[in-house]
## 1
Amino acid sequence: MKVKVFTASNIQDAMAQVKGDLGRDAVILHTRRFRKGGFLGFFGREMVEVMAALDTPPPAPAPERKPVPQVVTLPRPGDEDAKVTALQLEMANMRKMIEQVLAKLPRQEKQRPPLYDLLVKNDIEPAIAENLVQGLPDEGPLTGNNPAFVRQLLMERLTNHLQRVEGIVVPETGSKIVAFIGPTGVGKTTTIAKLAANFAFGQGMKVAIVTADTYRISAVEQLKTYADIIDVPLEIVYTPDEMKAALFRHRDKRLVLIDTAGRSPRNQYQLAELQALLAVDPYIETHLVLSTTTKYADALDTVNRFSVCSPQKFLFTKIDEASNLGTLFNLLYQFPTTLSYITTGQNVPDDIELANPAKLANMVLRD
Ligand SMILES: Nc1nc2c(ncn2[C@@H]2O[C@H](COP(=O)(O)OP(=O)(O)OP(=O)(O)O)[C@@H](O)[C@H]2O)c(=O)[nH]1
Ligand SMILES: [Mg+2]
């Protein structure tokens, strides 16, 4: 048996080489794509490698043997079974032959489909990417699976992991209090202004804003400016008791939005203080605000440390600035937390929308 490896820039050229060298009876044992040149696996040229084998024919028949004329017989009942058995035998021989060849070959690097590389390029954690592509059919001309079809299957898997979506739901005949917590500068205050405007103008609701961010004068001024433009009342609170009193004063509002100071996830004292502020009312729904531009490891640390405040939902900001949605997807894959809104820019009140699973999945798999 003859086994050869052919390399070309595309599958058609590789197959032409196989045919030219080993002929039409060659058996394809294995194909893979890889990158040649480049730096750390990037920017290289994509190449295709095809491993093919040819079962070399037995020595030529003795010259004196005369060719036996072929007798063509019509199939009779019962012949079909014989044909199937012969075919099965042939296939078993072929499988044995391939197994013998593979056993003699040096161990190959684990094969991963091209979509795995695309996920990892989009900062999906390698272990998560591996789970996502597990069991996907192979794509490419050798298997007959259209790459677009395989991509669509993966897209459905991604969408499934982003299904848990719910914004702020104000009960028909009741009210809602929502607090926004998170690290500094992620966009909590801007997001509150966007939501206040949308609920007050868009849905005609009575809205109030309470801020516990009293660390910086500029923070209060920033929110006061928004509150004045939107024409909603703003309360400034320093202690849990004041928070309780402010919520009581605004019990007639359909929606109360609470702004908090950005906390360093590493400052346990600040987190405990935040926890105490939110503990004044068990009905406060807490959204942990995270920026999509944050590195996954840092975002994971933030989620773990803010878990003392038991946030019910994640809200992701700055999608317009993120080069990919790796952090967002990795977190939602790991935590069974509901996703509320995503923000897409600095403009108040427009740059905010309810998360859309299919749209986000599309962005996760950006080429
Ligand atoms: N590009 C972009 N910028 C945003 C977005 N949301 C907020 N920002 C900007 O991010 C910066 C910080 O926004 P803030 O709303 O003050 O953030 P914060 O979380 O309240 O910050 P602290 O109160 O200091 O913790 C501002 O310049 C905002 O305009 C967004 O979706 N996209
Ligand atoms: Mg703020």
Note: Confidence is low (pLDDT under 50) at residues 68-77.
## 2
Amino acid sequence: MHWADIFSKQVVEKRPKEEYVVESGITPSGVVHIGNVREILTQYFVYQGILKLGKKAKFIYIWDDFDRFRKVPKGISEKFKDYIGMPLSSLPDPWNCHKSYAEHFESKLEEEIKKIGIEVEYISATELYKNGTFVENIKTSLEKTEKIKEILNKFRKEPLPKDWLPINLYCEKCGKDSTKIKYLGDYKLSYKCKCGFENEIDFRKTTDAVNLKWRVDWPSRWKFFGVDFESSGKEHKSAGGSWDTAILISKEVFGYEPPLGPMYEFIHLKGQKEKMSSSKGNIVTISQLLKIFKPSIIRFLYTQRLNKTIFIPFDFDIYKVYNDFDRCEKIYFGKEEGDEELKRKYELSKLEDYKTCPKRISFSELTFLVQFISKEKLREYLKNLLLSRGVKVDKLDLDLALERADRVKYWIENYAPEEIKIKLSTEKIYLTEEQKEIINKLSEIVKKESSTEELQKQIFELAKNYGKGVFEISYRVLIGKNHGPRLAILIDAIGRDKVLERFRNL
Ligand SMILES: [Zn+2]
Ligand SMILES: [Zn+2]
């Protein structure tokens, strides 16, 4: 069984209720990259699993835009230093295209997520707080400050200071959280800010100043929304990390049975020179990934087991991702044997409802074809290639192959290892007598009118007499390498006339 179904079953069995809630969320402090997307897709697949069980469910995404601005990310003016300590939703947009800093990054991610077919209800934490949503949870937390401290101190070397409170307060004058706060009981707080301002507030009325500290805010949300499932990354899951404390606070402070929340591993890019990091500014977004993977394949990448690091390949491993996807597609359509889990991986990834299994041309095969055949001629070529394999093609198959070819081309031009790049060799080559004989025989075969498949069969016949030397010398003569794509495909991709000319002029 796929993990999405295992977890949804557990959620439904352990927490009988009318409507289930799956939650996700992040602080919009910068560009949300494909590492963060693992969280969204993990929750999304479980949400899909709950729906499949015939239960009602909703998937909410909380923007933690009432969090403080901590540091100026790369690429943003140093002037933003002045805003450190203010809520992200009250900062201006550095590019002046949205209402705030937070909204800029939020809308970017929302657009990206839409591109891979994810529907989710976005909720702004700023709005929640401003609407007084958490007033009671704030009061409960303040009254149970000692309990919360006791829980947090269990995991701390240095205990929290005496006057510690589970809340932050943004000064009404300077907007920063550099405030010393006192709880006066019954919704009332007094504070003194570093800027000199001091005041007394009732947080039922002044709702735009107070929020809960992260470790308390998280379980407060679970309780308010009735969250049943929320997985998270390693950064929250260390011993005594925010997950451990959130569970205890949820139970002991808010009296709420915490959601199910497995941990998922990291995301790494493979074949990119540098490791993805926001501070280096070399992070990868969904939009960039879409240039080499179609939306359903991006989703497919995230269906891998949660306890495994996902490697997103920009190198030759990209072949494997595409081949795995094509295989799961065949299994889904009953064209190949395979277990239920693989079938489900495809089902969770797919965005299209094809009536029958598309006939695919593999990514690796296309890498050679697109280097030799112009886009205009490719459709015709692919049609003949599939026909020569006895495959009846329709428009959709060709459209899909061409769509894939565009991505292959982009991959070759931007990421592929140098050795993939091939062109017809013009180098002078010394041939032994036997090799001359092979080339002569091969020329005769190439001259004959035949389909690519027939050509390949005849080449195999030739290899029965001469061994694998047939392939070695052919690749060396044609592309200056020791190996290459299926020889007949290569010959037809180059064009038989050009191949014969090359053979003649050796
Ligand atoms: Zn903007
Ligand atoms: Zn102030």
Note: The chain is about 45% helix and 10% strand.
